Amino acid sequence: MTNNKETIVKDILSKFPRVKLCHQPTALEEMPRLTEVLGGPRLWIKRDDCTGLATGGNKTRKLEFLMAAALEAGADIVVTQGAVQSNHVRQTAAAACKLGLDCYALLERRVAGRNEKYEQTGNVFFDQMFNIEIEFRPPGLDMNDEARQAAEKLRSRGRNAYFIPGGGSNETGALGYVSSAQELLHQLEQTNLNPKLIVLSTGSAGTQAGMVAGFHALGCDIPIMGISVRQSTNIQIDNVYKLAVKTAGLLTDKPLSRNKILVDDGYVGEGYGIPTDGTLEAIKMAAHNEGILLDPVYSGKGMAGIIGQIRNGQINSNGDVVFLHTGGAVSLFAYEDQILAG
Does 299 qualify as catalytic in the annotation? Predict the structure, then answer.
């Protein structure tokens, strides 16, 4: 990447409304003990769990652009959706408090077989701390459509409601990870690092799509591997590619190849929000070796993907690999018994 390319992307992002919510730049740290345990490659972690807002997480970057758009639209309330233990809903609720808006959220009972505590602790407890109105929904619905309908009902009652999709994952929200891509590349230049791979958890698609679009606009060819937490590889590639194309279209005229979208669905397990044995192992390995907290829904599965790919030889022992930590440790409380038993 050249300074000229960095300047171009900064100028493009400066045209979009943005509010300050995020502690940034987030740290890029080496993980020497985990590297040693796994026998290489040299592992690094980008600490987007430390973005600050309501304990942090990747959604805060997206919300800098989404909440700015809401304010420009004159909104007095934002409406969004997520699973019961949604990190996105928690951070959206906190951002609304910080900016003097109300927040209304729909929570999908997406994860079967959890006890009553699951809807009271972790992210749900924090949601309540931020004084939002919550409605629960059964699994299997089109939750974005449900949230749009809720926003329309609020408008019929005289509220100026602004809809934010689940995960903050549209081209506006994905700009947050264009910004992250630029930030990471600057850190790599400062530290003279040239990683062979970036690995992250991929769910609602906005984080991976934004990173891909940002690297594409900056002329960076470092591959980005998404470890799927829910969808099959083909479905997730479709989701990420469609959003990456929309996001990249805001930044550059260069066409984006579908081949840039890499997804591994081998660590989903039984489904979204259901940690595998590998997830639980990854959570404990990160905690015991690096003092880092991963969550059982997203970052734990992402780290399980790195561990699995190293063990099966998909990632060899040479070079450097960066893991993007998307946060979510608040949800550990909702899985406490399973994690301790595991």
Answer: no
